[in-house]
Amino acid sequence: MEIACFITPHGFGHATRMTAVLEALQKRIPDLHPHLFTTVQESLFAETLEHFSYHLLSCDIGLVQKDGLHADVPETIKKLQHFLPFDTSLLSDLAEKINECRLVLCDISPLGIAVAQKAGIKSVLIENFTWDWIYEAYLPQHPELQTAISYLASQYQQADIHIRCEPACGPAIADLQCAPIFRSIRTKREELRRKLQCENKKIVLITMGGVELELPFLHQLSSCEGIFFILTGQQETRHLRNNVFLLARDSEFYHPDLINCADLVICKSGYSTIAECTQAGVSVVIIGRAGFPESGVLEKFSISKLNARTMEQKEFLSGHWLKNLEQFVPAPAHKKTTFAGNGADTVAKYLQQSIVR
């Protein structure tokens, strides 16, 4: 039983969210075979999914990023002008490729919705924001975005099923609203801490969602006694110091497990990391992304649901916060409060009938 999935390459959050939904669907429909259309590396999906087909396709522009915390809006506009409106021959070719599929899932690439419509297949939009909503925030400085906003808004409206997951951005009418969607923890906290040889240390996980970001304070970490730092999204996996472990994007360590074994997570305001933190109930420090519309919504959610703290980008990159690290790391007796329910299960249950019908 085949379905098609169109996944924006903006960061890894949309890819991991789609992966979580597909994992939940495959538990309900064991012979479900997803066809993934994206430029997100295949290895990210292989971490979780046992079987799928991968089709390398640039199916969305999203926001071009300078690094993990900053977007390049002028470059985004240039790429949008070449990408939109969708090429009719591309739509026809893709419609032919997916003509055996029962359903098309889109997070949050509107190209998939257009392809589904061309193929006569039901489409599903899964989102906590859409690109027209994101681009509206940049209109005062970049009025030329209005053409893309209008076109994308009309494309999103063509989706047959609209699913919104918390924390959702902006007002919208949806067929289904669900809790945060995340990949499930696989390894027990104590087991992973033994593997990392950190049973008696406090672990601080620093993650920017897999997008490269230069961290000027790296050399300062070795001075923090009793703290073991894990930094994800690095170019290679290696120990930088006795207490500093760099992890490449394709390391053997599963990101939800790393979050669950940490005492503190320091992260950018990105959906997938925050969703995985709600599962683990870990203490969180959020690094805001100035000017990115979703950032404020995610920060507000994190403060409300996770008692998260926030930190300015300038303070984070300077490393000054290391002098007061103890105020962020909870005491050993700290008990985690996890959140019941994964939105992925809610979505899978909702979509099962559409797929098997």
Report on the architecture of this protein.
By secondary structure, this protein is an alpha/beta fold. The protein folds into two domains: 196 residues, 3-Layer(aba) Sandwich (Rossmann fold); 139 residues, Rossmann fold (3-Layer(aba) Sandwich). It is 36% helix and 21% strand. The strands form three sheets. The protein has a seven-stranded parallel sheet with strand order 3-2-1-6-7-8-9. The longest helix is centred in the N-terminal third of the chain and has 16 residues.
Short précis:
The chain is of the alpha/beta class.
List the helices and strands and how they pair.
Elements: E1 2-7, H1 13-28, E2 33-38, H2 42-46, E3 53-56, E4 65-67, E5 70-71, H3 73-83, H4 88-97, E6 104-107, H5 110-119, E7 123-127, H6 131-136, H7 146-156, E8 161-165, E9 176-178, H8 189-195, E10 202-207, E11 227-234, E12 238-241, E13 244-248, H9 255-261, E14 264-268, H10 271-280, E15 283-287, H11 293-306, E16 309-311, H12 313-318, H13 343-356
Parallel strand pairs: 1-2, 1-6, 2-3, 6-7, 7-8, 8-9, 10-11, 10-14, 11-13, 14-15, 15-16
Antiparallel strand pairs: 4-5, 12-13
